[in-house]
Amino acid sequence: MRILFITHYFHPEGNAPATRIHQLTRRWARAGHDITVITAVPNVPSGIVYEGYRNRWRQNEQVEGVDVVRVWTYLAANAGTVRRILSYLSFMLTSAVAGLRAPQPDIVIATSPQFFCGWAGRIVARLRRLPFVLEVRDLWPESIVAVGAMRSSPLLRILGWLERRLYDGAAIIVTVGPGYARKLLERGVDEDRIRIVPNGVDLNAFAPGVDGSRLRAEFGLEDRFVCAFAGTIGMASGLDVIVRAAELLHRRSRDDIRIALIGDGAQKSRLQQAAAEAGLSSVVFTGRLAKDRMPEAIAAADVCLVHLKRTELFKTVLPSKIFEAAAMRRPIILGVEGAAADWLEAAQAGIAIEPENEEALVDAVLRLAAEPSLRSRLGSNGRSFVEHHHDYELLAAHYLDILSQLADGRQAR
Fold this sequence. Notes:
Elements: E1 2-6, H1 16-30, E2 34-40, E3 58-63, E4 66-71, H2 82-101, E5 107-111, H3 115-128, E6 132-136, H4 142-146, H5 154-168, E7 172-175, H6 178-186, E8 194-196, H7 213-218, E9 225-230, H8 240-251, E10 257-262, H9 268-277, E11 283-287, H10 294-299, E12 303-307, H11 321-327, E13 332-335, H12 339-347, E14 350-352, H13 358-370, H14 372-389, H15 392-412
Helix pairs in contact: 1-15, 2-3, 8-13, 11-14
């Protein structure tokens, strides 16, 4: 097949959508399919272009057999509302133009988060009379309300109408978990148009035995027990709980424990300032690390924290960070309710806590620090579970079957 994939985020960016699309498309290309990805210049989360790239109208590169077309986008940091919407709209326009000029594909796929990217895919598919597959990885605009980035307004109602129209235009909607599938059904999407292809992990890259000692030495973590949050330090993460937990640990004289925030994002500077003002040397900020250092970063941790703000919407979310931590045999402290907590219970891979509850977080850290055998058992359980359910080799093949059936049905008609 010839597949055109439109995504705002792509390798070498390290966020969940970029990682997912890179892992899928490189495997499809390796299987002999002709894959074109239309995306923006890498800039997440700071809005600053990565070294070696320029924000030009169009630039082409090859990434592991995938033809990558990068289009000009108005760049904005992962914070605020107006500038980010301008960024999303600019990408919708330039990516749609690039999609109309691309060699004739068999299928067009576009992925959220931010459904303006999905609209670019719908426009291209409609004008070129092609089947359109919409990936739903986030429920826009509900998610931007959940993190407090926007309140109820006429604009919000317009975005909601656009969301429903986007769903109507898709031949197939692929989502990443049953929680999202239920939300789509509530919005009136036909069940026979919904497919679930969860996020996964590259089991070769994220494997037990990776050495994290260099990173521990780099950030002064050598002889400490390390609880690490690795990912975007953004509005949705609710990481004020880490500062409060560090204060509790300080009052309990647990200077042997460090909480590492590995990554960057809109909330990093504010949290860093709060930790400094409270004199909390136990909170360590590494800043953004290169994507290929993420296995090393997780290996440097004794346990991994996965956390989101406590909202009803996030009960549908299954954060991709859990798969990478589990693949590295690191026990997980999970501050996410709903689907993620159900996953953790099924995998028996960690301890679930109430989101934004610093006392629960400290209790979980102290328990895991005191019980090496528990850490080992939870880590082994997690690795076994992702091997069976979240191996990107298996997921890419399953997704390809969905696309093949859609393409074959079109050819038959």
